[in-house]
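Final report, results section. Input specification for complex C-07:
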Amino acid sequence: MDAISTIFKEIWKTLRLIAMNKMGLLGFIMIIFFILMSFVGPYVVAPDLQAHVKEINQGPSVKHPLGTDFQGKDNLVQIVHGGRDILTIAFLAGLMTTFIAVLVGSFSAFFGGMVDTVLMEITNFWITIPKFPILVIVASTAKLTNLWLLALLLAMLSWGGFARQVRSQILSLKKREYVEAAQLLNLGPLHIIFREMLPNMMPFIATSLIFAMTSAIYSQTSLVFLGLVPFSGSNWGIMLSSAFAKGALYQKDAIWSVIAPVGAIALFQLSLVWFSRSLEEVFNPRLRSGV
Amino acid sequence: MTSPLLELNHVSRTFMVKKQQIKAVDDVSFSLGTGEVLCLVGESGCGKTTTGKIIAGLLSPSSGKIFFKGNDISTLSKDQHNAYRLGVQMIHQDPYASLNPTQTIFEILATPLRYHKLVKTDKECRDRVLSLLELVDLTPPDDFVEKYPHQLSGGQRQRVSIARSLTVNPSFLVADEAVSMVDVSIRISLLRTLSHLKDELGLSVLFITHDLALAKYFAWDGRIGVMYLGRMVELSPAPFLVDHPQHPYTQVLLSAIPEADPDITRKKQSLQLRSMDVPSLLRLPSGCSFHPRCPRFAGQLCQEQIPSLTSFYDGSAVACHLVMDDRKKDVIKA
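Structure output:
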């Protein structure tokens, strides 16, 4: 019981920290909303599988708050059903990108010398490769039906810049006196990197995670849009793709089947960026004092 | 004869700055026994901190040897090197930078204890942390364990930093300007804590400071070493150095200490430097590096030959041609 109550206390404390920044709180609520909508929503709202010929390309109405698409399917229902893959991949790819970047960047900076030279040369080489063409080629040759594989591929292509940023942060932290003291106490490189240095750059890491997530969302919707990832079912990218395929650009009435997925993507991105404003409060003990 | 705890043998350290060599520490030798105190004083940039860092193992000397408990530290086995690493601890100058802002005081002190398996149980760990806090006069310790560094004052932080260096039971402390950043009003009590710890735990202390008055207070039963531009110019027992400064640089330093009593200040003879500017380390003067400023400058010999630190029978050691000439009889022949 004790352990559970401390966990609840910690969660409550974190929530109050998040609430200290109004924009951050708004972003947090929106993220929670998107997560609930995408993961719980499909069980509540029945999927719209049938075409309704009489209701093609309608604008918003009480019956269809976000209008209908070229088959007369409700856009809102599709948004609810199409978020799960996007969110999962964004989260997985973001985590993997950050993980690789932190590992490469921190080891490179901490050990210096040959390790630094080799790792940074690889990173530099990696950064200069045009990534989207590679992504397109790999995605079209290998059948990426597995969420994890796609996330890993997105992460493999985007860690370079973050790794360099992490490296520069660690280079500066390495000269701090408390890190020097940890070296004198012989606490070992793993402890020094993960327990002394990384906690001091958590706001930065969390922000990078969020930016990695947003770029993963763009990459995957682009892939889906180009029809290179054969996703079954609905997906914000697929909605966009089929809206364009069915000539949404030339039909004034079809605008809502473009606005709905684009709006969903943009709003989710915006909530992530707003949420990142609260992270400084969560990770910096100096700002915690009020809670 | 037992070997001293720590011995520096002609240690030098050069840094490369834009392909130019900078001699931060040049040919410094001294030794320190268990429980002894040595104060290093000198202007900023004279190599005090570099010397301290070399001793603590944060920098390696460019040339020369360091012996810890009689063993050359460059040839130590892994276990011995570990023992040396933990045996020599350092207290940093800036208490605002030397504590990790993301950890509580408890975490800061418990980490080395746990990492080096100095405590077995959680209970033992907490007890040890509390007793360490008490040792550095942070009482009652329960008030401090759960705090973050930013919730403490500069003096309290410095005490935490001292406690941290004591977690691994060192035998040698390098205190690098350990009290310079704290308020004057707290300085004396911090110094008392330090000297009390030194006596109680039998620590040897290398006390680095730019303030001769502090050195005089702290090292009264130890020795004071005066450094100038990377070289040791005088190394004597503290009372002797304060009462009979021999090197012209030491004499100038001592005459520059402000006195609380204006009468004393007026009566004190003030020595005039020939030049107020400290020469750049990039272009060290030839011969004795102090000669362009020396009030006793005596021509060619000073300009051409670097004086070496010469020991006298009364326990003092001075690097100055003039002093050597005056006291030829007292020189201990190497």
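The radius of gyration of chain B is 21 Å. The first strand of chain B starts at residue 6 and ends at 17. This concludes the modelling results for the funded period.
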